[in-house]
Design goal:
- There is one protein chain.
- Helices cover 40% and strands 18% of the residues.
- It has 380 residues and is an alpha/beta fold.
- The chain has three domains: 48-100, Orthogonal Bundle (434 Repressor (Amino-terminal Domain)); 105-202 and 343-363, Rossmann fold (3-Layer(aba) Sandwich), CATH 3.40.50.2300; 204-339, 3-Layer(aba) Sandwich (Rossmann fold).
- The two termini are 33 Å apart.
Amino acid sequence: MSASMGKGTAINGAAPSTVLSAAGSPPATSGTAVLTVATADAVSRPRLRDVAELAGVSVGTVSNVLNRPEAVSPEARERVERAIEDLHYVRNATASALRTGVSPLIGVAVLDIANPFFMEAAVGMEERLSHDGCVMLMSSTHADPATETRLLRALQAQSVRGIMLTPTGHDLSVPLELAQQGTRVVLFDSVATPPEVSSVAVDDTAGAELAITHLLSLGHRRIAFLNGPSAVRQSGDRLVGVQRAIDLAARTFGSRPELIVHDVARYTAPAGRNGATWLLDNLRPLPSAIFCANDLIAIGALSLLLEHGIDVPGEISIVGFDDIPMAEQIQVPLSTVRQPMAELGWTAADMLLSGTGVRHEKRPPMLVVRQSSGPVPSRR
């Protein structure tokens, strides 16, 4: 994963605002683009009854075609589907949810929708949800428990069919309460395994072990770990993996490699730059390698080092976590721990929709070695 806590992207510019107005509204002021929306009286929307009359069937048969097609004969179903197409009938999702008790809306609450990790995961979620005609409502919690609670309550008030949640921490009382009240909940990018809810994630501890073991195999014995905020679950799990790799190396080599841990404020590139600045200002000698808790932190740290004329990996190696798309496109392609982001998203959505009981899946990570990591410099 990567847990990222930055705010959503703001779009600035001088483009005129767009105003939605009903037909017959007063004209907008100069410089404002107006999109006029016809009122219900201006355009007659096809009704379920219209479809039934054109197809020569009952309203109940049309309803069955829309909600339980297996209960309708192929011949009647074909007539209804043809009538729907001819009339350009669009079902009223809100009314349908009231009748059937099944909403097409799926809530998704993640740490930061601006993080490429979650955007890649959303692709997988959307692919699976579209098969069942569901619509995704995605929001950021910014790793704030209070914001998470407000979002969950708001989604529950919308009577969503289910919620996929990346928890901000270890307190799962609110999502568990929602699950007990009948809202299906799946924990995404979370290894928590309460009996009431399903979960899917990559093994963060094993991934961090992979990264540190890779650096140790290259001869690095003074390693810095730029971790995310300690309150975030992924930060704690990845720190455990780092420490396990260091402990194993101490037993293997007979001496303990030096580890410097520094937490940054966010899982973002600016936070990575700040973390790298702290290392340059406070450590002598500098570490020969830096492991970062996600790729955005690593990309920020890498850019800061290059600006200071430090060769990567000639002087300092860097390894990230996630393998977001830009990881291989930056100036020095980033060695990183890969998470199958779209696959994780698809699996979470499938868990939510399948209704096959509680499932817990933990996927293995994979190390991807690129140009940002290399042997320890000989002068060290």
